[in-house]
Amino acid sequence: MLRMVDNAIEWAATQFWRHRVHRQFRRHLGKDGDFENPRSHQEKVQFRKIYGNHPFYALVADKYRVREYVEKRIGAKYLIPLLAAHDRLQPRDFNPLPDRFIIKANHGCKWHQVVRDKSALDVKATCRRFNKYMRARYGWTSGERHYRFIEPKIVIEELLESHTGGCPWDYSFFAYNGPAGFDYNYAIVTPDGRSSCYTRQGELLVSKIPLEELAPHLNPANFNEMVEVTRALSADFDFVRVDLYSVGNRVYFGELTLTPHQGYGAIAEPRRQKMRDEMWHLDAWNPLLYRAPKSHGRREPAVIAHPATEP
Question: Residue ranges per domain, the chain?
Answer without folding.
Answer: 82-158
